[in-house]
């Protein structure tokens, strides 16, 4: 008989430059949530610290991985085995605190592996971070990789896959970067309710990184109505995406979502 780990995971994922690192840090400030710290890898991302799921320079390529069929991993994948979970636990153990009931593991590639991770960890919960495609485009250009005239189409195709997978998850929430930076305490309160934890306020100053790209975004026709993203870098209310097997938890999380986010019924 396999003994479940004494902790639960909240996996954070999303396209690069979408705010996953910021959100993971804010979640990890909760006393019940431990995070990877001091690891010799980019942004303390767990994908680099394990050997169970292949991750080389050809995996997780910014602006490309999320539409790579080989990176879309679901239940029944060849890696959907007890051995994979045991290797993950062993490889991550040195980097997490040992006394927290929750662990937050943030890697952008988690957004295309949610269904595999759920099969490996049935009690895991997932947070997907999104950011308006016009701003992700500009942020990627600042990195000097990946983005081009076709980026909005790539962003849309990636999110169609990501949001399609969310429908297969028992416990998942989608957070827009724009809402997080506009009202961090309220957004965090909704997420802590999603995890059935008491809220704590943001522990760092949260700045709006979109401001640096506002002029370019105003000229963009990138849009995605499903998440309330309009042309010109604008946002509109949308129907919050929160999935949880317990209705009370789900409804509390939705009720705490900033009112400016929620599309009128």
Secondary structure elements and their pairing?
Layout lengths: L7 E6 L6 H9 L4 E3 L46 H11 L9 E5 L7 H7 L4 E6 L2 H11 L7 H16 L5 E5 H6 L1 H11 L19 H5 L23 E2 L3 H10 L9
Parallel strand pairs: 1-3, 1-4, 2-3, 4-5
Antiparallel strand pairs: 5-6
Helix pairs in contact: 7-9
Compressed to H and E, one letter per element, the order equals EHEHEHEHHEHHHEH
Q: Describe the global form.
A: globular
Q: What is the CATH architecture term?
A: 3-Layer(aba) Sandwich
**Proportion of β residues?**
5-15%
Structural class: alpha/beta
Assembly state of the chains shown: single chain
C-alpha-based Rg, rounded? 18 Å
What percent of residues adopt helix (DSSP H or I)?
A: 25-40%
Describe the main β-sheet briefly. 6 strands, mixed
> What's the arrangement of strands in the largest beta sheet?
2-3-1-4-5-6
Q: Which topology does CATH recognise? A: Rossmann fold
How far apart are the termini?
A: 47 Å
Low confidence ranges: none
Rounded mean pLDDT is 93
Number of helices: 9
Could you say how many structural domains there are in total?
A: 1
Classified by CATH, the class is: Alpha Beta
């Amino acid at each position: 008989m396999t003994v479940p780990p004494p902790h639960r995971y909240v996996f954070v994922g999303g396209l690069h430059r979408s705010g996953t690192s910021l959100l993971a840090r804010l979640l990890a400030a909760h006393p019940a949530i431990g995070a990877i710290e001091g690891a010799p890898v980019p942004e303390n991302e767990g994908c680099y610290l394990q050997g169970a799921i292949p991750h080389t320079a050809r995996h997780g390529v910014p602006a490309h991985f999320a539409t790579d069929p080989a990176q879309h991993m679901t239940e029944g994948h060849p890696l959907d085995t007890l051995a994979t979970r045991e290797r993950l636990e062993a490889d991550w153990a040195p980097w997490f605190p040992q006394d927290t009931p929750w662990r937050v593991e943030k890697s952008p590639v988690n957004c295309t592996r949610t269904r595999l991770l759920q099969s490996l960890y049935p009690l895991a919960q997932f947070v997907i971070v999104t950011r308006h495609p016009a701003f992700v485009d500009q942020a990627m250009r600042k990195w000097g990789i990946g983005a081009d005239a076709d980026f909005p189409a790539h962003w849309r195709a990636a999110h169609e896959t990501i949001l399609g997978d969310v429908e297969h998850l028992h416990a998942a929430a989608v957070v827009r970067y724009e809402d997080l930076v506009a009202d961090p305490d309220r957004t965090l309160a909704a997420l802590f309710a999603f995890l059935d934890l008491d809220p704590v306020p943001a522990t760092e100053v949260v700045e709006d990184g979109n401001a640096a790209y506002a002029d370019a975004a105003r000229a963009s026709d990138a849009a995605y109505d499903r998440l309330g993203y309009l042309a010109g870098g604008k946002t509109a209310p949308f129907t919050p995406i929160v999935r949880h097997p317990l209705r009370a938890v789900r409804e509390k999380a939705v009720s705490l979502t900033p009112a400016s986010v929620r599309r009128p019924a």
